[in-house]
Structure formats: C-alpha cells, structure tokens
Amino acid sequence: MRKITLVALSLTIPSALSASAAIAVSPVNAPGARLHSVTFAIANMPCPTCPITDKTAMSGVHGVQSVKVDLGSKTATVAFDPRVTNAGAIAAASTNAGYPAKPKS
Ligand SMILES: [Cu+2]
Hints:
Elements: H1 2-24, E1 36-42, H2 50-59, E2 64-70, E3 75-80, H3 87-96, E4 101-103
Antiparallel strand pairs: 1-3, 1-4, 2-3
Helix pairs in contact: 2-3
The structure holds copper (II) ion (CU).
Copper (II) ion binds next to loops.
C-alpha cells in the first residue's frame, strides 16, 4: 500500500513542475501585452519622405509595436510595450535621426 503511494507522487511532481515553468516563460511582445500609445510633436519635417525615415528610426526601438507619422500635423503616434521601452527612448531615436520629437501633453 505504501509503495503505491510513493509511485503516484513521483509521477505527479515532474508534471506539476513543467506546467509552472511553461507559465513563467512568456515572450516580451506577447499578444496580450498592454501597449502604451504616445503622440509626439515632430520638428524639422519639411518633405514627404521625412515621415518614412522617421518611422523607420522609431520602429527600430526595441519594444515599439507600431508607428504612424503624419506629415500634415507633424506628429507621430507610437504604440509600444512599456515593459521594454518608454517615450523618452523613442523620442531620442527620432531626434538622433534628425527629427526632434517631444511627447505631446
Ligand atoms: Cu524630408
């Protein structure tokens, strides 16, 4: 009777461990991640190709999910994972590419 109980325990413990390990490992940009969206005022955007260059620069920041640059209003709306990056890092990437960016309040 006692032997049977021990066998049952040795079988259930490993499967319980692997289940908790699967929960702990989740991708950084998981679909369920809550994104922040910030609109930036972009200075120095004189021609129609500027938004493409600026979008590429902002999209290159790790954690950025989407970038929409609007030439008419000279703004960029960026959705990002706040666990990975922040508005300051995204503004710096744009500024370094030649398009000084400031979060609009
Ligand atoms: Cu341009």
